[in-house]
Write a structure and sequence with these properties.
CATH architecture: Orthogonal Bundle
Strand order of the largest sheet: 1-4
Order of helices and strands: HHHEEEEHHHEEH
CATH class: Mainly Alpha
Largest sheet: 2 strands, antiparallel
Number of domains: 1
Organism: Linum tenue
Strand content: 5-15%
Distance between the termini: 27 Å
Keywords: Heme, Iron, Membrane, Metal-binding, Monooxygenase, Oxidoreductase, Transmembrane, Transmembrane helix
Family: Belongs to the cytochrome P450 family.
Structural class: mainly alpha
CATH topology: Cytochrome p450
Main location: membrane
Cofactor: heme
Shape: elongated
Number of helices: 7
CATH superfamily: Cytochrome P450
Number of strands: 6
Length: about 210
């Protein structure tokens, strides 16, 4: 049960941040919507088989995970022996954490790190993957203690995000920008709930099928 709750929490947090970033970056929202409209259309709902062709969607999600990782710090590690790291002595038994949030905002790796720009992944400006092989980008951790639900979680986020963007035009009350303040929590939630205005884009029959 704990695994299911953790998966649901991190998935909802990621989707919330993705929508928040897109609402504050209408150019990226329009580009994503155009991709889905061109590659899927308006006559059916997005399916799993469509996801591999939605490359800008992948970039949007990766950029969201860079800026707003659901798990901003790693699970704790313990030094199994005395070690020295860049001149710092770390005694055996020391517990330490990796700060993924800070890592993902390294300007040497990600120029203009506070700017939401999916193109850095879509146009291969940054050559890193999500699987923990590149230590500059670790949204799911790395090694044996990386997130066991990574592939399933990515599939759920991608399909849910694609269907939401296909089905609705998103706006905010009074067309105000989204407050991006982060909450002080284990999973990196928003401090204030996301409020949106939805306008259907598809025929009523498709909503009954979804």
């Amino acid at each position: 049960m704990a695994v299911i709750i953790a998966a649901a929490d991190t998935t909802s947090v990621t989707l919330t941040w993705m929508l928040s970033n897109l609402l504050n970056n209408r150019r990226a929202m329009a580009a994503l919507k155009q991709e889905i409209d061109e590659k899927v259309g308006f006559d059916r709902i997005v399916e799993d088989s469509d996801l591999e062709n939605l490359t800008y969607l992948h970039a949007v999600i990766r950029e969201t995970l860079r800026m707003n990782p659901a798990g901003p710090i790693s699970v704790p590690r313990v030094a199994s022996e005395d070690i020295t790291i860049r001149g710092y002595h770390v005694p055996k038994g020391t517990r330490f954490f990796a700060n993924f949030w800070k890592l993902h905002r390294n300007p040497e790796m990600f120029p203009e790190p506070d700017e939401f720009r999916p193109e850095r992944f879509h146009e291969k400006e940054v050559k890193v993957d999500i699987y923990g092989r590149d230590f500059e980008y670790l949204p799911f951790g790395t090694g044996r203690r990386s997130c066991p639900g990574m592939n399933f979680g990515m599939q759920v986020v991608q399909l849910t995000a694609a269907r939401l963007i296909q089905a609705f035009d998103f706006g905010t009350p009074f067309d105000l920008p989204v407050d991006m303040t982060e909450a002080d929590s284990t999973t990196l939630a928003k401090a204030k709930p996301l409020e949106v205005v939805l306008t259907p884009r598809l025929s009523p029959e498709l909503y009954r099928q979804a």
